[in-house]
Amino acid sequence: MVPMTRYTTHISLLQRVSASTDPAAWREFCDRYGLLIRSFARRRALQPADCDEVVQDVLTALTQAMPGFEYDPTRGKFRGYLKTITLREIQKRYRQHRELPLATDGESQGVELERDDAALDQTWEDEWRQYHLRQAMRSIEVEFSEADREAFDLYAVHGTPAQETATRLQLSVDQVYQAKSRILKRIESLIERQVEDEG
Amino acid sequence: MSNDWFHGDELLGELRKAPRSDAAPRVPGYTHLEEIGRGGQGVVFEALQQSTQRTVAIKVLHEDVTRVVERKTRFEREIELVSTLEHPCIVRVYDSGVTEDGQLYYVMERLVGVPLDQHISDTQPTQAWIVQLLIRIADAVGFAHQRGVMHRDLKPANIIVSSDGAPHILDFGAAKRALPVEDGEGFATLTPREDVTVAGDFLGTLAFASPEQVSGDPARVDIRTDVYALGLILYHCLAGRLPYDVSGAVATVVQSIVDARPQPLKAHSELQLIVSKALDKDPERRYSSAHTFARDLERFLRGDPIEARGDSTWYVLRKTVQKHKVPFGLAALLTVSAVFFAVSMFIAYRNVAREQSKTSDIKIFWEDTLGSVAPARPGAAITFADVLNEAVAWIEITTEGEPEIEASLRTTVGNGYRNLGRFDEAEEQLQRGLALRRELFGPNHADSIASFNAIALLRQSQQRYDEAAAMFTAALDARIALLGSEHPAVAQSYQNLGRVAFQQQRLDEAEALYLKVLQRRIALYGAKHQGVAMVQFDLAEVARVRGRLEESLSLHSTALATRRERLSPPHPDLARSLRALGEILTLLGRTAEAQAALAEADDIGRSLRGN
User: Which residues of A touch B17 (CB under 8 A)?
Assistant: First the structure.
């Protein structure tokens, strides 16, 4: 059995999940992708209870598919696969409720969710990026001091002036700048690796 | 999708989008707070209400009120009022208070959905669907108005569409502080402490603000400010953009809101008219309420005549009456309305076809004329005769070389004089109208016959009934020859003949003629039509004179019901029906009902007179 580390690669996780014998791998897998699926479902206007069901059903579908899922180095294969089954589950919920606005005349294109349009792609892409950020931030949390992380958050993310950030955290302005550049660089390299890894 | 989003500024941008769960405030009575959104005003959390175990949303405002007791009291008063609003399309507010850190918060229904603009761009609904959605939104806004609550910050971001397609309005009565019009706090939410989202939020609010809001005159902000925002939302849903450019500097945007003419909408011309009326820079010329806006949208969907089209007639009329405190009696108003109805019909007919320029000429005519009338003697009240005299002068000056318009206006004004009892003036205008039309089109043209018929109506008013009957018969024959016996104008001729017969006490003949008209109109338009109501009214009067009071009551009631459905109050025909009904009820000894009907008729009369 592969020992759990702070950072498990996507490939090794997929392999372990594919082997279907490792509950820890599944927990890790659910942790990682559950939030992604849930956020996406919410942004497609599903009720919270429905979102939970979508997460469960997508993960169940994955469980069934994964043992036969062979890692394919073709880029984006897993990502595309996950998106497809997530959308399928969301559409199922809509059909159950018949709750989409139906047009009142013949001009309608039918149910909007059937269409794989640009807005939907963008939503998925947004959620996917947030997913990668969350993964990367897990490492940042253990690799950097609290002061560095707060400086990064205040100065780089919130846009608080460097001087004010320094005063508030009792750091020098230079330390604030350094925290920003070091953490930013680290996130970049972490995500780069994750994206490569994702295949 | 780009694969280098995780570098530099783009990466920071993504990080800023991430929901933050840090520092959830402590709100007594609520647990499991989880941030679900943030904006200029505050942060929204999902939470569990302990007492009910229901999931709610809590909006915690940025404002720190520990030092401002007065602010807290006012906030609580506002929330108390808003919490009385129970409407399926208004997000319920349950509770409010101050967090342990001294921040104001209010608790509302937890709703899952997407903002209206996203819903529209995601689902690309049809125009009819958008209009229906707006009707629901406007009705909810009207509901709040009736309970004394204005919104003042209606915009797509404040309307959430749930997965069943229903709109839900957020932040009622709570969002107004975002604009500088409300009070001395001004741009209080734009403190340096806040980040970019505040600026974004403010600009979103600014883009959907009305002229009276940005011109900084709080006294002029009323429910019609919300009507303006509804117009903007409708425009935005239909066009995917605002009617004017709101992208520049704040001062430029303000200028656009105050001055810029909305860019034309690629929509049905009637829908365009409705949007324009809602977006009028002058609140006085907008729909008077969210409900009247909603009703006009319904009329548009049904294909009925919309109120917005009558804007330049009814509006100008009422405006004139109000401005000059004209002592018009109800009867005079009925007269005026008949003239205006004629003009509106003329406009409507012409508009259908191609003669756009003539339509606008007529419009200018009414606006100019009624805008510039002065009383005959300085200091005296203006009379309808003054209006007509002014109109005649206007015709002489401006219709040179446009005989068709001149003829139409002379006929209309002539009808106005006739209704006022000024028969000599009426005779002159009607004869000149008839002569012009005969010269233009020959004697057997529909317009020439209409002018001839107008003179027959004059004879009727002069009580020269035999002459009138002969002329009506001639007009009837001409119409049948020209238009065929089934044409609506033929039915109108039968009705005219019926009325003369009624006045000459030939009741059998009158009743037979009216029944013929009733039958034809029902076949043509269905039972619920204004023309049907009109002849039911006449039949009811025959029944009354013949002592068949129950039958008369039933006919009057039916006519009134149709008029209530088809006319937007206050309308003179509603007052007429109510008065007639009141008289019948009095005769039947049903005094209380009679008094109610007569009182309502009086109310309508009063609001028509502008007080």
Answer: 126, 130
Contact B112 A126 (CB under 8 A): no
Mean pLDDT by 10 residues, chain B (611 residues): 75 77 74 74 82 86 57 72 86 85 83 88 89 94 82 87 90 49 28 32 68 70 88 94 78 78 80 90 87 89 69 47 45 48 42 39 46 45 62 64 75 78 89 93 89 94 93 94 87 93 94 94 85 94 92 95 82 86 91 92 74 48
- Strand partners of residue B159: B169
Run of H or E residues at B96: strand B93-98
CA distance B358 to B362: 6
Chain A environment of B125 (Cβ under 8 Å): 101, 103, 108
Exposure of B193 by Cβ count < 10 A (0-12 exposed, 13-18 middle, 19+ buried)?
A: exposed
CB contact under 8 A, B14 and A100: no
B452-491 pLDDT tens trace: 999 999 999 899 999 999 999 999 999 999 888 888 889 9
* Chain A residue numbers touching B162 (CB-CB < 8 A): 45
The shortest C-alpha distance from A23 to chain B (Å) reads 28
Check: complex ipTM more than 0.90: no
Q: Say which residues have a Cβ less than 8 Å from residue B299's Cβ, sequence separation at least 6.
A: B305, B306, B307
CA dist B76 and B95 (Å) reads 9
DSSP B500-523: HHHHTT-HHHHHHHHHHHHHHHHH
- The arrangement of strands across the sheet holding B54-64 comes to B30-38, B42-49, B54-64, B103-109, B93-98
Alpha-carbon distance B39 to nearest alpha carbon in chain A (angstroms): 14
Phi, psi of B60 (to 5 degrees): -100, 120
Which of B402, B396, B398, B404 lies closest to B428, judged by CA? Answer: B396
